[in-house]
């Protein structure tokens, strides 16, 4: 064997020495870190035990046990978010928050509930979830005593007492008690709906609405009424339902004192006093107090009739009109006159009928002063003054002041006899001729004078 040269020996010794130095430095670093951690733990423990919070915010005077706690807090004032997501660019004030957020992209949920197996992105999410099993609500309101499982829930609740709404929309000025409410509201301006259903593709502004929607597919109803056992897909729906048992109506009108079980019902009611009509038709500029009323009104412009009678195929703009129409086929007359006991198919017909007993004629002609029981009767009468005949026959062009006149006229072209006698099956062009014919069966008229 050849002996190594002196230079090679020296280089080998240097390499060994270098490795030894690196190992020594590593051990020193580990010991130093352990000492620092021990000191920090001791300091934190001491400050916790003595409730001393030496680090105070000069902006809001909130105090913290550690300097790091104050640094993180200061970012809530400055808006600084030094930790950014490399996937979507969203910024965070703390690294832990960024780490939790990153799991929404990776799908990782390392914190699992030992009771039900549900998993969470971060430890705090699991901590809050565990309280649904234990029932623990450590954060209580000093005013009404209501308790919450997390501090943020209590903070939001306190604003219901103070009326504080610190989060305002820069576009319309509407205020909210929490940032989530503002974020969801802003999407009403931008039209953004980032939460989509994987089953049907329907999108929502916030995750809560998506969660409730998914239950329409799964059939899950996790919220049960302890009184009657009825189940609901959303907690808010259960809360409203419980009020049907308790009779609670926590929302009161300051103008008339009337109370409501829902806040939305109070909001709508207040428009009676204020006259507010926030929903406007873009075609005729007519205002409405409810969005549903506007949607129904729009059909007068579009001609849309989405409600179809399954018996005769006739279509209607409103569901209520279809309901009333169906009673023609069923013969149901749920409204009875208290004077003559006559049955009517709808409430409006009953009101009009009652005027035949009272003699009331609230609709008067501005030209001749003649009074009428219904507004429609007045409208038809006014056409005798104006000469207006808006209903024209598409076959011969003959015009009529009433739609019923045109309908009857059309039978002269079609030969249709829509009204049949249930006894002899004889057909008639209108209801009046059928009524006259029916008397021949009852013996009230000797002969039928209808021309066929």
Automatic annotation (TrEMBL):
GO MF annotation terms: DNA-binding transcription factor activity, RNA polymerase II-specific; identical protein binding; RNA polymerase II cis-regulatory region sequence-specific DNA binding; zinc ion binding
Record has Nucleus as a keyword: yes
Subcellular location: Nucleus
Lineage: Eukaryota, Metazoa, Chordata, Craniata, Vertebrata
Entry's Gene Ontology cellular component terms: nucleus
Functional note: May be involved in transcriptional regulation.
InterPro entries attached to this UniProt entry: Snail/Krueppel_Znf, Znf_C2H2_sf, Znf_C2H2_type
Family, as annotated: Belongs to the krueppel C2H2-type zinc-finger protein family.
Domain of life, source organism: Eukaryota
UniProt xrefs under SUPFAM superfamilies: beta-beta-alpha zinc fingers
Source organism per UniProt: Cyprinodon variegatus
Protein name per Swiss-Prot or TrEMBL: Oocyte zinc finger protein XlCOF6-like
Pfam families: zf-C2H2
Keywords: DNA-binding, Metal-binding, Nucleus, Repeat, Transcription, Transcription regulation, Zinc, Zinc-finger
Signal peptide extent: none
A biological process term (GO) from this entry: developmental process
Domain C2H2-type span(s) in chain numbering: 55-82, 83-110, 111-138, 139-166, 167-194, 195-222, 223-250, 251-278, 279-306, 307-334, 335-362, 363-390, 391-418, 419-446
């Amino acid at each position: 064997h050849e002996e190594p040269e002196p230079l090679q020996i020296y280089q080998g010794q240097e390499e060994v020495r270098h490795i030894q130095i690196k190992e020594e430095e590593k051990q020193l670093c580990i010991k130093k870190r352990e000492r620092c951690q021990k000191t920090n733990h001791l300091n934190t423990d001491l400050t916790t035990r003595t409730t001393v919070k030496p680090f105070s915010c000069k902006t809001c005077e909130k105090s913290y046990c550690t300097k790091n706690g104050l640094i993180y807090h200061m970012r809530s004032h400055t808006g600084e978010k030094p930790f950014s997501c490399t996937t979507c660019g969203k910024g965070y004030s703390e690294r832990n928050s960024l780490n939790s957020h990153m799991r929404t992209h990776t799908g990782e949920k390392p914190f699992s509930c030992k009771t039900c197996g549900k998993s969470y992105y971060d430890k705090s999410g699991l901590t809050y979830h565990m309280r649904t099993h234990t029932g623990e609500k450590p954060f209580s309101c000093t005013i009404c005593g209501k308790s919450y499982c997390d501090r943020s829930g209590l903070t939001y609740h306190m604003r219901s007492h103070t009326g504080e709404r610190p989060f305002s929309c820069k576009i319309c000025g509407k205020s909210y008690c929490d940032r989530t409410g503002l974020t969801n509201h802003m999407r009403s301006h931008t039209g953004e709906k980032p939460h989509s259903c994987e089953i049907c593709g329907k999108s929502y502004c916030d995750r809560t609405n998506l969660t409730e929607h998914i239950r329409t597919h799964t059939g899950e109803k996790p919220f049960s009424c302890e009184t009657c056992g009825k189940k609901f897909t959303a907690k808010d729906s259960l809360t409203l339902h419980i009020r049907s048992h308790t009779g609670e109506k926590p929302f009161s009108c300051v103008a008339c004192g009337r109370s409501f079980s829902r806040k939305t019902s109070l909001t709508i009611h207040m428009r009676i006093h204020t006259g507010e009509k926030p929903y406007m038709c873009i075609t005729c500029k007519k205002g409405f107090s409810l969005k549903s009323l506007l949607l129904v009104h729009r059909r007068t412009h579009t001609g849309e009739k989405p409600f179809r009678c399954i018996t005769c195929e006739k279509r209607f703009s409103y569901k209520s009109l279809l309901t009333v129409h169906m009673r023609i086929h069923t013969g149901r007359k749920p409204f009875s006159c208290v004077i003559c006991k006559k049955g009517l198919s709808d409430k409006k017909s009953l009101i009009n009928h009652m005027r035949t007993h009272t003699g009331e004629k609230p609709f008067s002609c501005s030209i001749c002063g003649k009074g009428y029981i219904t507004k429609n009767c007045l409208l038809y009468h006014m056409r005798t003054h104006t000469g207006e005949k808006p209903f024209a026959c598409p076959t011969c062009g003959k015009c009529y002041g009433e739609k019923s006149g045109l309908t009857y006229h059309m039978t002269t072209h079609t030969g249709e006899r829509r009204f049949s006698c249930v006894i002899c099956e004889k057909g008639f062009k209108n209801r009046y001729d059928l009524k006259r014919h029916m008397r021949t069966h009852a013996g009230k008229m000797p002969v039928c004078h209808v021309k066929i």
